[in-house]
Every structure is written in C-alpha cells, then in structure tokens.
C-alpha cells in the first residue's frame, strides 16, 4: 500500500514536495504581555489605543494611556494567543491588552510567512482541558505540517486577501446596521414628541399615538399537541418562537397537522416569550405556537415594532413576569406612533425595507466569503 503523502488536497501549480513537520515552538517565539496591560478599564471611544482580548470580542474599547503600547503594524504583525481558551487574533496595529492571560507571538524566522503560520495555529484540533495555561506546556510542542517558504507565502497571501474581503464586507454590514439604527431613531417621533426629526418633503401634520390593538389584529399563539408535529413540508408550517425567524422572515423547520391559531401570508410574527420582541414577516400561512403572536400589519408597523425592540421597550414590559414573556393584553396596549397620512406611512416603510434588503445582501456576501475561506482552509492545509 502506498504511504500517504504529507500534502494538501489543493495546491498552487508547480508545488509537489511533501510538507515537513515542525514544532510551533520552532516557528514562533512569544512575549509576555505584562508591559502592555492597561491600568484603567474605563475605556474611551475611538480615537485612542485599542485594548485587546484574545477572546471573541477582540477590541474591548480604547484607552488614552500613552505608555506601555505594543507596537504592531502590517510590516511587523503580532498574534495574540489566549493562554486559557487557545483562541487567537492577527494584529497589525498598536495596542494594549486587558490581562496577562495571553502570549504575544511572532515568527522566529522572518522568512516564514506569518499569516500562513497563524492559520496553521487556528486549524489545530484541540479542546482545552481545565483552567491551565497552554502555550508553553502544550502548543509550543505541537508538531504541524509546513511547506517551503514560497508556497507558504502564496497561501498566506491568498488568505490575507480573503481576510481583507471579510473585513470590507463586515464594515459595510456594520455601517448599514448603524444607518438603520439611526434612521429608526430619526424617522419616528421621540418620546413626548408628535413629529419625527426626519421627514419626507410635503408632510407636516403631527403623528397620533395609537394602541397596537387599535391599528392591527393581534392573534396570540396556541401550541398544537406535540403528537401532531411533523417534518413533512406538505403540512402546515408551525412557528414557535425566535428560532423560526431568520433575516426578518419565517424560516420553516417544523410542521403540524393540527390547526390552532393562525396567521396569513404577509402578516407579522412576533416572539412573545424569551426573547420577547423579535419580529419577522411570513411569506406563508402558518400555525402560531404559544411563543409567538400574529399581527396583521404592514411594513411601517414592522419597522415600528423593530424600533420598540431597539429602544428596549419589551425588556421593560416583560420584566414583571416570572418568565420573560408578554401577555396578549400588554401587546395590544403597546403604544405605536402613527402618521396621519397613509402615504407618509408607506414611504417610511419602503425606505426602511430597502435598507433591510441592503443589510441582508451584505450579510449574505459576508457569509459566502467566510464559507469560501472555511472550505479553502480544509483543502489547502494538511
């Protein structure tokens, strides 16, 4: 039987040699983070020096401290490695850190491609056991497959481009979300006001404060008997809660043959049990489980309910219940500011709907590139 060669499934043309095994400790050197620990955790907004963690949040905030700054750049990057969770981040800008629970890694041989080594580090299949430090005792001793320096550079360059694309689309997504957040605040009246800060030309009349139950039919859900649940798409879609909503729409995952309470295609669906306030639309006739309510509303009302969630309204209303939930009475009594003109109502709904579509587009593009990167990591590394 032919011995399995130490090569990846996908390679750049011209490379055929097997990869060699190297220990991470031979490839990377480490620095302790103590000189760069921030003194005050009362972070300021940007601009300032970023305060980093190797965990999921990455940037905790910014500090005005002008000393003890770790200098990193595109020409001299650093990898911060969480000594307990083993997560890591590639850093190309000056920073400070929150704690000593990390190592600052850099390449021993400047001819090695650091970004390639970083992705190799991220591919190690290891689950931390217990609360112990891992770099010196374990990770530095791990043996990893490494190609020649030219192939390293080509792989590293490809993933740098992918990472840049991911960063670009993440920024576009974040910008669109912030724009939507700002418009929700400006296109609906503030508390106590009768007109919004931002309006379409030609509309000057004051808005009215109405109860949700006065302007829309609200149907509280009632779960069917579990014996009637199915996985047959020919049956009726059952919406039970937030898990059935994705990107602002009902995403079918459970069906039923027992009809209890229903909502029609085009209606709004809102979660009324933890978490309260998530809202979406349905393109299908559905059965409503006890975790949701159906609301016969338009695009304007959908956006108005989103603003309620953004303002934290549902958290306040549901705070008095033993279980995070809202009653049908409380939901129907929800105050909704409404313009007197149906034309203004339609324009607001359409403007915010277009922005939602843009957010969805950026999210899908971002997810696509992340999936592409994930696939290439599997194919281009041993």
TrEMBL record:
Entry keyword DNA-binding: yes
Domain of life, per lineage: Bacteria
GO molecular function, a single term: DNA binding
GO BP: DNA restriction-modification system
SUPFAM superfamilies named among the record's database cross-references: DNA methylase specificity domain
Type I restriction modification DNA specificity domain: residues covered: 17-174, 205-370
Keywords: DNA-binding, Restriction system
Annotated Pfam families: Methylase_S
InterPro entries from the UniProt entry: Restrct_endonuc_typeI_TRD, Restrct_endonuc_typeI_TRD_sf, Type-I_RS_S_subunit
Record family assignment: Belongs to the type-I restriction system S methylase family.
Name of this chain's protein: Type I restriction modification DNA specificity domain-containing protein
Lineage, uppermost ranks: Bacteria, Bacillati, Actinomycetota, Coriobacteriia, Eggerthellales
